[in-house]
Design a protein that fits this description.
Length: 174
């Protein structure tokens, strides 16, 4: 049995959540079957780390000790898969019982600007609402502030430097 999730319909009428499969979302789009899911095993986590390494370390020149840290053990991780290949990822840290921080969102270059990042945010919104989170914060790189604004985030405070890149703190109420 397949049910359509209303909060995703505006972005893809083909999106569906399969009943009984909590924490996963499927899209059939031109590049193949794209799935959004919480990390369920070591292979998926390894794939998430490979995407982060490619995007943050290789493309942006951020050192691995800043890309990977002890928070990875406690974080909620999501992967975006094209078939079996991990093509995108993000992690969430729970700061308090009702506040979470979205971090390390990364999508491989050939899959960018296809709505995948937006779907990650909305998938996580649903997961976090289910966990009674009321507010999500993040540190956005300056070049993607407009993207996060389009996902409902608002800027907070002044820009700052993190990992050698200009950022701004943003928040969103769920």
């Amino acid at each position: 049995m397949v049910s359509i999730c209303a909060c995703y319909q505006q972005y893809s009428p083909l999106c569906a959540i399969t009943a009984g499969k909590v924490g996963s979302l499927l899209y059939d789009i031109s590049m193949g079957k794209i799935s959004y899911k919480l990390v369920a095993n070591d292979r998926e986590l390894k794939g998430a780390f490979q995407v982060r390494r490619q995007v943050f370390t290789e493309e942006q020149g951020i050192s691995e000790n800043q890309v990977f840290d002890d928070h990875d053990r406690e974080a909620l991780h999501i992967v975006v898969k094209d078939g079996e290949r991990v093509i995108g990822t993000a992690r969430v840290l729970f700061l308090t019982a009702n506040q979470a921080k979205l971090e390390r969102m990364a999508i491989l270059k050939p899959f960018r600007r296809k709505g995948i990042g937006r779907r990650i945010v909305f998938f996580l919104d649903g997961e976090l609402r289910n966990k009674h989170v009321q507010q999500v914060v993040l540190h956005a790189q300056s070049r993607v502030v407009a993207f996060y604004k389009s996902c409902g985030f608002q800027e907070l405070g002044l820009p700052f430097w993190e990992a050698g890149i200009k950022h701004i703190k943003m928040q969103k109420q769920l």
